[in-house]
Specification:
alpha+beta, Glucose Oxidase, domain 3, 4-stranded antiparallel β-sheet, 3-stranded antiparallel β-sheet, 7 helices, 9 strands
Length: about 260
Amino acid sequence: MTQTPQLLQVSGVGDPALLQPLGIPVRVNLWTVGKNLHEQLFGSQSTNVVNPIRLSIATWANNEKGSAYSAEALQQIFQIQADNIINNNAPLAEILVSYGYPDLESAAFSRGNVKLKTDDPFMRPQVTVNWFRTAFDLDVQVAAARLARRVLTSPPMSSLSTGETIPGTAVPDNADRGFDNDWKNWLLDNYSAVSHPVGTAAMMRRTLGGVVNAQLKVYDMTNLHVVDASVMPTQISAHLSATLYGIAEKAADLIKASWP
């Protein structure tokens, strides 16, 4: 989400290093507002992913610390995300049946941020998503793309297809359903956002970089709630709509219960 952190920042809730140069009085020093942005994207190695994840968490957290509270905090978040993938068999990617057979990655480890460019609330903020900054995200896209090709060219789906047009010959087929470099080059040139961003006002402990507490209230604010996808600290292995309906229903109960 981009407008929630923008509204908080322009109101003086955020990182003083960002707000003060723009002439915005700092009301709450909450410098993780706008951080932890991550998005699902269309594009992916159907080989074992457990060891690469476990061995890389600390490195990924250190590389992404600029979009988090700290490397140590992000490592804890990544560990939760990894445990969900490894121990609970949470899907890493989804294959859609549409006019084509696109795949989307549902649990990226790359992190970005949202920052004001001006104190004008009607000006769009600067959004930096940092696609594929964690190389594992691109490996997942390659694996999902291979799987989509394998399914589309195997019965019974093959009987419904007249042949692959995208990427087609841009990624020549072979026994592995395409070479790594061919897939990576094509994906880097053709990926697109799913428009499922989360995390920029995350509900977490403040020591992990949280912006809202378990009551969905912004830390150090008296009665300001945030109720949208920005409060989700990590992606879920699914589309967001049903989860957001649940968050909204819970928020309604919390807000009603807080009134005298």
